[in-house]
Amino acid sequence: MIHVIAFYLFAVMTIASGAITILARNPVHSVLWLILAFFNAAGLMVLAGAEFIAMLLVIVYVGAVAVLFLFVVMMLDIDFTELRAGFIRNFPLGIAIALVLLAEIVLGVGAYRAGALELGTSDGSAAPAMGTTNIEAVGALLYGRYLFLFEVAGIILLVAMIGAIVLTHRQRSGVRGQNVSKQIARRPDEATVNVKPEVGKGVQL
Amino acid sequence: MTAFFQSLGMSHDWAWFVATIASILLIALPVMITVAMMIYMDRKVWAAINLRRGPNVVGPFGLLQTFADAFKVILQETIIPSASNKGLFLIAPIVTFTVALLAWAVIPFNSGAVLADVNVGLLYIFAVSSLGVYGVVIAGWASNSKYPFFSAMRASAQMISYEVSIGFVIICVVLWAGTFNMNDIILAQKGHGLGIVNAYAFNLLLFPIWVVFFISSLAETARVPFDLTEAESELVAGYQTEYSSMSFALFWLGEYANILLMCFLNAILFFGGWLPPIDWEPLYLVPGWIWLFAKVFFMFFLFSWVMATVPRYRYDQLMRLGWKVFLPMSLIFVVVISGYLMATGHFV
Lengths: 205, 348
Known about the structure:
Chain A is mainly α. Chain A is 71% helix and 0% strand.
């Protein structure tokens, strides 16, 4: 009973906040609704017994990605009239994307009605391990069976990260950076001079 | 507690429901009272370090000063700036306060005394503590004012930077304990140091990691020396500038509840939580929550001590410390600790 109530609560909230995300006029409101959608999706994951995935969803999407989203969107200077001006021009593109999404939903529902997809091998060796915790099951699969795929994924991410840094890094000349170790290594006797000037005479710096 | 309500003649489901509500109140109310006392302790410690008396007028030894402040604030008028985004402006303090209370669900106060004994306890705390920044960011944006906005920008960048190293610190502890469950992490520390001391901090590999965690928790809760989000010399009062009355009080309480949570985490992850400090039989006669609170108050004393003695960081120094010092250091420690555990056959 409580499962059903919780499921419908999270599901309705996910869909509703997802819908408001694209309907909201204000981009900051959109991001906040998106965050609510992530949150409710995490709730659905908990209901499905995947508490590890739920926590990762909150940590990665809500805690990091959405904060950066919000960070960027808050600083945007958006002119709403200008946004509407491009409506007619982008209309055909929007329709095309909507049709693709519609086809995907129809296909997805059709495939779901045709029966669940057979995942893993026929002897059931890739079936989710019962009796172990989420984290142990994920860990055993990632670092055992799929170790090389996991490492390849890691290397791809590393290359992507280095690529992003290389593309955006600018070498600027004439920037006076701070050398912290030099600052810390400074001692009072080399930074200050103690002078006793005579009356009426200045100090040579 | 469910069994107790069942004995009163309730069905199991209702008993569970009432028991959960009762336990939530049983945790949240003492947390709020502890927060009030912590604020008092904070001010007393600063006063002692500055050779002042601190609050000493309201109640015996000034103990009721925080309550007086709270009543003063609540009785004030709530001012909502006309240019602000009203809905979000009012939601922001509620978000901060709620998120500050969420994490307490998985904190073990004694052996078995925990609201939700979940397998992903530590991950849950990490997830919830990363939500704390939203209250600040929303407040800064919704105020529609310069200083709160700067503060929100600073807060979001600061939290993300330090969460990275906190994540690696948590991985180090989890590697050693072999579990994400808070209670099991505490039990894994029993007799950890030379078979005598119940603390992960008493370990040459984990002690530096604790130092990283302690400083990161100062940064995560925006305490001095990392309180750049409310640096009064630059940003008036930061994200709270436009807030008054109850909405300000919610920020204030939420902030201190977060600090208290970080003190609990320091005590639980590195100092053995509710275990006595020394693994000696007579010490187990003292109830576990007394040990836990003693450790938490020691941690909070360290927080206050830092606040009273250390000057504020510059923003570039803050970023440098997070990304160029703590991140590589905690990464190296993850490698070293997992290597050590593999070499000594800890994983079997």
